[in-house]
Amino acid sequence: MKNRLKNLRDKLGIKNTDALLISSISNIIYLTGYNGFSNEKREAYLLITKNAQYIFTDSRYSIAIEEKVSDFILLKIGAQKPFLKILEDLIKDENIVSLGIEAKSLTVIEYLAIKKIVKCNPVDSILQEAREKKEEIEINSIKKACDIGDNAFKYILGKINEGISEKEIAYYLENYIRQNGGEPSFRSIVAFEKNAAIPHHLTGDDVLKNKTGQYVLMDFGVKIDNYCSDMTRTIFFGTPSSTQILIYNTVKESQEKAIKLIISNYRQKNNTKINYHKSTMINQKGISASKIDKIARDYIISMNYPSIPHSLGHGIGLDVHEYPSLSPKSKDFIQNGMIFSIEPGIYIPYIGGVRIEDLIAIRNNVPEILTHASKNLTII
Questions:
Q1: Which residues of 133-142 are buried (b: 16+ CB within 10 A; e: fewer)?
Q2: Are 202 and 325 found together in one domain?
Q3: Both 148 and 282 in a single domain?
Q4: Do 143 and 121 have their domain in common?
Q5: Mean of pLDDT over the chain
Q6: Nearest in space to 335 (alpha carbons), one of 132, 136, 137
Q7: Cα 175 to Cα 173: distance, rounded to the nearest angstrom
Q8: Pairing of strands 98-101, 119-122
Q9: Among 104, 85, 81, which residue's Cα sits nearest to residue 93?
Q10: What is the pLDDT of residue 362?
Q11: Cα–Cα nearest to 31, from 62, 68, 63
C-alpha cells in the first residue's frame, strides 16, 4: 500500500494538485486494503496530502479501521463533527489550494459542497493509470478467481437439462462460487434462445425445452481477495443447426484472431531487433487496443454478420470494468501488467446470439490467458 500511496503523491504535481480526496469504494480498497464499506452508501473518504493520509468514517467502523488500516490517520465523523467541517479544517491546516477529486464518484451535491471550501480539480485519470497495471499479487488473485470460474463452468454443464430456468442456472453457478471460496463479481447473465441476442439480458424465468439447438449463453464472474474475474461461454441445448454452428465458429475465430495478434506482437516486442518505426501495431507504448478490436470486428463483418454492438474488451481488477478499453475509438495501448477481456459476439435479434469471453494478462511482457474453460462447441 505504501508504494501505491507514493506513486499517487508523485503524480500530484503533474496535475497541479495539493491533495487527493478519494471517494469510490474500489479506490479506497486499492489504497487501504479494507473492503468493509458499503457500495450503496457513502461511508468513508480518504484524503491523501503530500505528507500524510487520512481516512474519514463514523464510529461503526472505527475499531475495524484502527485494527486493519494502520497507515492512515482515522478521523471520526458524525453529527457533531461532520465530514465537511473536518475537511475544511484540514484544508486550512495543510494549506491545500487545489483538491483532486474523483469526478466519476462524487455526487453533484457532494461536489457543490466541497467546491465551496476549496478549488476542485478532477483527477480520475491519475487513479485510472495507477490501477491499469497490476502488481503480481493482483494478477495472482484474478488468476485464482478465474480458476474457480473455470471449475464453475464444468460444474454447471452437469446441471443443464430440460425444464431448468435461467434463474436456476444462475443460482447454481453463484452457489458453487460461494461454496468454493469466492463471491460472484457481478449478477450472472444466463440467456436462453432469443434472450441470448441481448448482450446484457436480465436473467429470468425462461426454461429449456425439448427441441433442437437452443442457445444457452452464460456470463459470470468470481471475486477473490476483492479482485474480479469475468468469462462468457455459449453452449447449445440440443443439436444446433448449420447456421448456429457457423455463428459459433465465427465468434470463436474472431476471438482467436485477436488473441493471436496480441501474442504475435508481444513476440515481436520481445525481439530486441524490432524496428518500432516500421511497426503499425506496436510501439514503445504497447499494442493499440483499437486495432485489436478491429481485427475481431472486421472478421465478423466479413462473414456478413452485424458488427459487435459493444467493445471487444475491457480491463478488469477491483472493478469488473476498468481501463484499458478495447474499442474502435480507444486510444489505449495494451502494456505489461494489464489484464483485460476479449469478448466478441454475434447477436441476431429475436433469434439468439453467441459470445465467448476470456481474460488475458500481460505478465513479464508475455500474454497469458487466465481463463481455461473449454471453448469447443458444446452440445447437451
A1: bbeeebbbbb
A2: yes
A3: yes
A4: no
A5: 93
A6: 132
A7: 6
A8: parallel
A9: 85
A10: 96
A11: 68
